[in-house]
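Notes from the 1:1 (GR / supervisor)

We went over the backlog. Supervisor wanted to see one worked example end to end before approving the batch request, so GR pasted a single chain during the call. The sequence is below; no edits were made to it. Supervisor asked that the structure be written out right there so they could see what the output format looks like.
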Amino acid sequence: MKNILDGIDNAKYVMIVADAKCLPSASALYTHVLRLHKKVSLVCKTKNINNKLSFLPWFEKIKSDRVSSADLVIELDISSIELFNFFKINNIKMNHKMGTALYAGLLQETNGFLNSYIDGTTFAMAEELIECGADYKTCNNFIMKRSTLCALRLKATML
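Structure output shown during the call:
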């Protein structure tokens, strides 16, 4: 990952390619590249993106086709926890958009903090992201949204 930072520094146009499960991490990295005043594109390999992620920063900028003019192509396949640790190790200060994206990824990856492998470090990470300005209420509303009884009945009728 360290050579990615060098590549970003030397590139004029960066393309970040990720699948739908890595979109929160891709959104956070997209924000970092923008802060470096680089031209950047975000490409999602997955055709159908879950609407629960529509609140992510830069969601409207997601493209479905690769850009041929990019100097650097980053195939991103890391979790939000790994990207968070990468930012911390490399002293990259996170802003509210990066915090929101990484918090959304953390919420998605831990199934709303309900997975059995959750420990205190996960909650410490969540706290730090909230301190960075993560919009945790919006993340919770979109990602943890459950279907209403009316919506479930409608789906049952349709099926």
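Supervisor's comment: The longest strand covers residues 13-18.
Batch request approved.
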